[in-house]
Design a protein that fits this description.
With 99 residues, the chain is α/β, with parallel strands linked by helices. Helix content is 46%, strand content 21%. The chain has a four-stranded parallel beta sheet with strand order 2-1-3-4, with helices on both faces.
Length: 99
């Protein structure tokens, strides 16, 4: 199994790597759109684990969603971000973009 961890923080990467190291798993790490694309284009990735903390993370998420629609993507979020995502997902909204 090939797992790509997309994150900005070294401690989470290290923790996930330790948790997954007991299994037959190849772990890749990426922090930028260019590195994500490189890994996804050169390897058959089974699972992407991704932190969501900021708008830059949303940009990475958008890139993966648009370019790799069939990828198994699991999000890791803190309580505030998780609550925000859940609220947005459950509600019915019209979003107006401001410039």
């Amino acid at each position: 199994m090939n797992v790509l961890i997309v994150n900005q923080t070294q401690p989470l990467y290290e923790k996930l790597s330790r948790m997954l190291s007991d299994h037959t798993i190849n772990i890749f790490r990426a922090e930028t759109i260019n590195r994500i694309a490189e890994i996804l284009n050169q390897n058959e990735i089974d699972l992407v684990l991704m932190e969501i903390h900021s708008l830059s993370d949303v940009a990475l998420l958008d890139f993966i969603n648009r370019n790799y629609k069939d990828i198994n993507l699991q999000l890791i979020a803190d309580n505030v971000t998780n609550r925000l995502l859940t609220t947005l997902k459950e509600g019915k909204y019209t979003i107006f973009q401001s410039n």
